[in-house]
Design goal:
The chain is of the alpha/beta class. The protein has helices spanning 49-60, 65-71, 84-97, 109-115, 149-164; strands at residues 28-31, 73-76, 103-107, 125-128, 131-136. A 5-stranded mixed β-sheet has the order 2-1-3-5-4, with helices on both faces. Strand 4 and strand 5 (131-136) form a beta hairpin. Helix 3 (84-97) packs across helix 4.
């Protein structure tokens, strides 16, 4: 006879992302979600946001895959599909994990809102409680801002500078 299991957290595609234990204070890139939750913003998949970010970095300079993987801490707010409720919960937990001096790149306005960062202009920078937040457009293939090579190089330069200190 099957038994039902009750949990206090959502299951499936909208599953909550557990707190991330950060052992380093590398720049943190925060995205929405992806089909590969175990590899947030990984550049291994050709049309993923991680691959687009690495291509932008390489338009501004040179960074190898291994350097990208070690230069940043990376996480998504949701597992596979976006949920405002889950993202806001993940964002609150993320804000609690941040320490003075941390640097965070937020990918898109949905992520910025979910993390609780006030509105800023595209490419805005904001310092809250000693944490520096850089807001850039989400690097999805649907974002037309990235049709402009100058925009791609701008984001690439920012990430390259953050990675190399």
């Amino acid at each position: 006879m099957p038994t039902s299991v009750r949990t206090d957290r959502p299951a499936g595609d909208f599953a909550f992302m557990p707190p991330m234990t950060r052992t380093t204070r590398r720049p943190l890139i925060v995205g929405e979600c992806n089909p590969y939750p175990c590899a947030p913003l990984a550049p291994d998949f050709p049309n993923s946001s991680g691959a687009r970010l690495l291509r932008m970095i390489n338009e501004a300079g040179t960074m190898y895959l291994s350097e990208y993987e070690h230069a940043f801490d990376r996480r998504n707010l949701c597992r596979r599909n976006w949920s405002d409720r889950v993202a806001e919960r993940s964002g609150r937990i993320l804000r609690g994990e941040l320490k003075e001096g941390d640097v965070v790149v937020l990918l898109g306005h949905k992520v910025r809102r979910a993390v609780g960062v006030p509105p800023v202009d595209t490419f805005g920078t904001l310092i809250l409680h000693g944490v520096t937040f850089y807001c850039v457009p989400h690097p999805s293939g649907l974002n037309r801002l990235y049709n402009d090579p100058a925009v791609r190089r701008h984001v690439g330069r920012l990430l390259l500078e953050l990675a190399r200190g």
